[in-house]
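Exercise: predict the fold of this chain.
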Amino acid sequence: MMNKEGKINEIIAQYLKRPKFKPNEIKAAIEKQLNIKIDKAALKNRIKSLKLH
């Protein structure tokens, strides 16, 4: 079983494959699937770091 960090990264990665996405969509998907609250600034930083890889 993957931890929450891995699941969050997986959800973000799925959205990064799409041509267009909004950070709010990713935030909503994470909060809905994992039933947790995530800070928008933290989410943006995570998206940036995943884009670099």
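Check your answer against the key: The helical segments are 4-16, 23-34, 40-52.
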